Amino acid sequence: xxxxxxxxxxxxxxxxxxxxxxxxxxxxxxxxxxxxxxxxxxxxxxxxxxxxxxxxxxxxxxxxxxxxxxxxxxxxxxxxxxxxxxxxxxxxxxxxxxxxxxxxxxxxxxxxxxxxxxxxxxxxxxxxx
Length: 129
What we know:
The protein has helices at residues 3-27, 32-42, 50-65, 74-90, 97-111, 122-125.
């Protein structure tokens, strides 16, 4: 696979897969936040008693259901799903081009020693000559 093909595949994958996941979960009235909350809560079985597990499953479903689109915290669930989970999955920081350039410039300053970032003071502070 050529580099260009791999790059284009990754671009389309990162664009469409989060959208497809959102549409699939919306079909069942879920979003990524409510689905993840339910999945994580289901992993925490406290006892081996079936009747207590049934009660715990009901509580888990109720708690996770609050993050569904029509739940009490639906706005929070939708926002975290779209802006948090989707961006994290595709490695998007949410910063614009100018913010990314400013961040890169700041990181470039941090890589230098503090004496090297002062013009003309590098030789005094032990920086590069």
